[in-house]
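Form P-L/3: holo structure prediction, ligand iron/sulfur cluster.
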Amino acid sequence: MYKEYKPNMAPFKNPMPEQEPLVRAHNFKEVAEGYTAEMAMDEAKRCLGCPTKPCVAHCPVNINIPDFIHEVALGNFEKAYEIISQSSALPAVCGRVCPQETQCEGKCTRGIGVDPKTKQPKEPVAIGRLERFVADYHNAHSKPEDIVRPESNGHKVAVIGSGPSGLTCAGDLAKKGYDVTIFEALHLAGGVLVYGIPEFRLPKSIVQKEVDNLKALGVKVETNMVIGRVITIDELLAEYHFEAVFIGSGAGLPRFLGIPGENLNGVYSANEFLTRTNLMKAYLADSNTPIQKAKNVAVVGGGNVAMDAARSALRLGAEHVYIIYRRSLEELPARKEEVHHAMQEGVDFQLLNNPVEIIGDENNNVKAMKVEVMKLGEPDASGRRKPISTGEFKEIEVDCVICSIGTSPNPLLRQTTKGLETNPHGCIITKTEGGLTTRDHVYAGGDAVTGAATVILAMGAGKHAAKAIDEEIMGAN
Ligand code: FAD
Ligand code: SF4
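OUTPUT (holo model):
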């Protein structure tokens, strides 16, 4: 327990100021507005500074949580930022999108038990909200010009992909003096952070600031460079003299349902729909990006991506948006907060419904989706109760279907790099904790290795790879 102030023993978190659900359902501005300094300091005083630090053990990058929160309680926000940035390269991103409820906050001592007054479960310290506050404070009070470029160590490393794994790997190596070039296939750096996660959850200016900070450290960012097409990995090593390559190319290849009607007009993968909306800014009135302005939309799937697609469809003007999911609310894999937000905004959850056909009109436009009503059986290999057919079918009238049932890594790099082995799911095989692949000097991490996962795990992989690359290059010199 800290001695400098009286702890705040309130059983619940300081609520997050948010836009009203019915207002925000029609705009792309950020939903959560962030704590004020007063709210952050008050919330920070709920932390008990537990000697066993259960929260730290459950943070995938082991941020020293009680220490940074203690500095917030004292009003030392820059000091808090320094502590976080020893472990995390993207705190403004992670504070917004990490699944804290199953990680640090899931193990917080303050979340144990029931409040006797309200009979509600007590809430953990709002670690994610405090992380976001600290990062936003720092970003508002710093400029890329303040960053001191480290002295060059004369070694060159290439990074493929500018998602959280690539950005982290590049940042860690640049801080050690490496000459790092990121090659990104799209026209803008940031990976899923810019093309997938919508503006209303993660403003793009935040990602841009992180990219600008990397550039200030000396990292070069080459966009519109599809490695495997424009240059191969072998050429990067042999002709361009990079001493190591890190692959952080993600898992952007969408899966489809494999049911009749998937080729009809009005069927999208969630990746295409979100890329058009976010990266290509289809939501702006003056945008040239074509996107269907649908009236009734069915989003198939129950993960974070499905919630993002559904909430984006609402904001683009759809009158009715359904989530079609074949299990129940309990098995829904999306973050609870995202599900809660989607429900508040009016998304209609059609649970225990399995799509069997997309029905078109005479012009091959989607007009309905046929679903089978399911019931739950015994748990399957994933531990979740298995959906079982009931033989009962129904039709839902929709003019747009968005498939959000998962993605896998794009096969391009495997196909164009001899000896780069992948598993049957197309994920790159790594042999060490540092992410060494089956090719010498080639490392990989993030979704390209694990399949679709989380920002923080991708960042962790980028960090481990940077360390391993540094050890390899320095060991050889
Ligand atoms: P990515 O972020 O996928 O970046 C890979 C980059 O590599 C891309 O920019 C791609 O264009 C580029 N690339 C691919 N191939 C090549 C090539 N051949 N040459 C050059 N560049 C190439 N995670 C959370 O923790 N919380 C969330 O709330 C959350 N929400 C999500 C919402 C959506 C819509 C999506 C799609 C994902 C979400 N995730 C979330 C998952 C998370 O974003 C990913 O796990 C994470 O971004 C993976 O990082 P990465 O660096 O491995 O790859
Ligand atoms: Fe603070 Fe909760 Fe971590 Fe304990 S578990 S140190 S109360 S954040």
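COMMENT: The chain has a mean pLDDT of 95.
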